[in-house]
Design a protein that fits this description.
heterodimer; A: mainly alpha; ABC transporter involved in vitamin B12 uptake, BtuC; two-stranded antiparallel ribbon; B: alpha/beta; Rossmann fold; six-stranded mixed β-sheet; four-stranded antiparallel β-sheet; about 35% helix; transmembrane transporter activity (chain A); ABC_transptr_permease_BtuC (chain A); transmembrane helix (chain A); membrane (chain A)
Chain lengths: ~325, ~260
Amino acid sequence: MRWRLSALVLLTPVAGVALVLAHLFLGRSDVPAPAVLRVLTGRETEPAYALIVLDYRLPRVLVGLGAGALLAVSGVLVQAVVRNPLAEPATTGVGAGAALAVVGTLVLWPGHALAYPAALGGALATGAVLYVVGRRSFAVTGVLLGAVLAALTSLLLVVDSAPISVVLRWLVGSLNARTPQDWTLLWPWLVVVLPTAWLLASRLNVWVLGEPAATGLGLRTGPVLAVVLLVAVAGAAAAIAAAGAVAFVGLVAPHVGRLLAGADHRVLIPVSAVLGALLLSLADLVAFSVSVQLPGIATDVSGVPVGAVTALIGAPVLASLVRRENRA
Amino acid sequence: MSTTEPPVLAARGLSAGHARRVVVADLTLEVRPRTVTALVGPNGSGKSTLLMTLARVLRRQAGEVLLDDRPIDRLPSTEVARRLGVLPQTAVVPTGATVRELVEQGRYPQLGPWAMLRRHDDGAMRRALELTGLTPLADRRLDSLSGGERQRAWIAMTLAQETGVLLLDEPTTYLDVRHQIDLMRLVEHLRDDHGLTVVMVLHDLNQAARHADRVVALRDGRVLADGTPREVLTSGTLRSVFDVDALVVDDPVTGRPLFVAR
């Protein structure tokens, strides 16, 4: 466990820098490498290059890293709340709530740029409903809530299919066309949610022992539960509003984190945050690099949404992790 | 055992249960300091409910629980946890946690949530691991241990709390004979050398007879018999409490009552 952690501490900064550079140098539009270097050192005279690197590529990688970290930490918290390592942010239904709110506003007020506040508000409102209704069993209530909200979204899309292309990025999760404004809206959440989550770590270590043991140790389980759920929902809501309901990052990152760092939340939370950031950003690198050609369709789609990649990679990775764990 | 000292823990007119079902009704019980009390009774008699209500884990429906003569629910929960340790029956095993990490949680009430953001490995933890014979297993993962070893890890966590009162719900479950004996000796040692007060739910009547100062027999949420093992463990009470026809003889080793089913 110790050597794994040391390796992680040494490798993650390297991996992080490599990922950021890869994002800045690669991309779907052609910017020569020397031009990227010139942009980064402030000596580029061609404004189009500067625009692409600083206003498209940089926010994209920053939002990817930030949303990945938030999803991972939210995953750790949700798993702690329901005391089940197979839970994830989606278990709370907040992603479905965000999607419904986005579709709802697009149907009711088409042409208005309400997607970001709608996604955020929908996610937070779902979290509030979950807390009020689900006191007995969050996992079951959250999954049911998510199913109901997803059904309502489908219903709205059947009635009015105009918003489908816009809402798809919230349903699947995508980092395409992120702007500096997205990063401006995201980073304050990182600054609040990540440290707050870590400060809850010692309480979480007690909480996961179960209600009777936690009460016996003097933990006031009611208020702790409310705060943990609030932070988990806030983290997921901010990530989903920025990048959509990206699947599996909130499940896989805490899982790998537990393999590397153990169950102690004081270590698990920062380790998962780093892993989630790297994972989403790496998946995004794959996402914009691949192109898909479907038989019978003339245009080939280059650059798939990152949510499709995380699900395609995440599912087998998770399956193998569960197998390994059961064998160990 | 002194009967003049004020009780450390007391229930007055206590009713408790789950949801609307009353399991323990209007029960009064006083626990004297430095004694070992065994709660016995058939399944569903309310002994675990009583214990968990004394531990303020279950909410009472009526009456009151007093810790050192003060209503337990008026004391801050961490304050209670510094004086009273609880070993619940159904404990969740956190995925991937080690024995040491579990035992460390016993320090939570003493150190508080902020200090617990740093790792701790103090004397209390080492003593708790030592007393339960878990020092060699301290860095093993809980999910790689046997049921008995895991149970001892939970007992170690409760001991690391270093409280004056221990409430143990079926502490000998999952333990093999040797570890059952070790645990009962540990309980006696804690009473004799550290002045601890222990209340525990036991299923094995002979264990209760052998190691408890006082046996409280419950049935249908009421106390049917209460006293020394010799007073309580008679053929008559065994029949009225457990519906068991039994012979009670003298234990050739301890001289305490020994129950043999007929």
